[in-house]
Design goal:
One of its GO terms (molecular function) is DNA replication origin binding. InterPro entries: P-loop_NTPase. This is DnaA protein. With about 220 residues, the chain is an alpha/beta fold. The protein folds into two domains: about 25-145, P-loop containing nucleotide triphosphate hydrolases (Rossmann fold, 3-Layer(aba) Sandwich), CATH 3.40.50.300; about 145-215, Helicase, Ruva Protein, domain 3, CATH 1.10.8. About 45% of the residues lie in helices and about 10% in strands. It has helices at about 25-35, 55-65, 80, 100-110, 130-140, 150-165, 170-175, 185-200, 205-215; strands at about 40-45, 65-70, 85-90, 115-120, 140-145. Strand 2 (about 65-70), helix 3 (about 80) and strand 3 (about 85-90) form a beta-alpha-beta unit. The longest helix has 18 residues, at about 185-200. The two termini are about 25 Å apart.
């Protein structure tokens, strides 16, 4: 019987039970869990693309009742309302409305609310036109997620496949680990390529397909 390859919706799993703690993210998790005992009640969660920043930040937001907002969506007039609870600002390093983020920062400080910002690089390198905002970024304590070890990368690969409702054999994970770059971005890329190629060819995922993509 021919096995059909069907495009299925993604089901991103972002609960605490879905987050694996390893050597690459244990220090960041420990800092997150110290809330509200953060310096000034503020923290920067940083790390490379796809490392689990959004997942860990979402866990924090859910557990403390924080409001989530992307930096690019911030508006000055929203700052007082947002600061009625702890706030998670995602992708603060990508720039946005500097004045809005500056006012939100001050509103959180004034109200004694926690503020968690996520980004890729060190906070001192984040983009900002306002000198006062740049100085505030530089004052943030960073909680960094590093590139993954093999144990975490295995779980990341399994999760990326599972998010696409794809079941794969452990042998495929081992094969990928032995041939791919050790990074979260590479894991996302290889899973995406395998998924698309499986659909395009109408064949199931397996080592044969992976070999064609990685060694062909």
């Amino acid at each position: 019987m021919t096995q059909l390859s069907i495009a299925l919706p993604r089901l991103d799993a972002c609960g605490r039970e879905d987050f694996m703690v390893s050597t690459s993210n244990a220090a960041a998790m420990a800092l997150i869990e110290r809330f509200p005992d953060w310096p000034g009640s503020r923290l920067a969660l940083i790390g490379p693309e796809g490392c689990g920043k959004s997942h860990l930040a979402a866990i924090w937001a859910q557990e403390v009742g924080a409001t989530r907002v992307a930096a690019v969506d911030l508006r000055e007039e929203d700052a007082p309302d947002l600061a009625q609870a702890p706030v998670l600002v995602e992708d603060a390093d990508r720039g946005g409305n500097d004045a809005a983020l500056f006012h939100l920062w001050n509103a959180c400080v004034g109200g004694g609310r926690g503020l968690l910002l996520t980004g890729r690089a060190a906070p001192s390198e984040w983009r900002a036109e306002l000198p006062d905002l740049r100085s505030r970024f530089a004052s943030l304590t960073p909680a960094r997620i590093d590139d993954p070890d093999d144990a975490l990368l295995s779980v990341v690969l399994l999760k990326l496949f599972a998010d696409r409702q794809l079941q794969v054999k452990p042998a495929l994970i081992g094969y990928l680990l032995s041939r791919m770059e050790r990074s979260f971005a590479a894991a996302q890329d290889v899973v995406d390529r395998l998924d698309r190629e499986s659909l395009a060819r109408g064949i199931p995922l397996g080592q044969s397909l992976a070999r064609d993509l990685l060694e062909g």
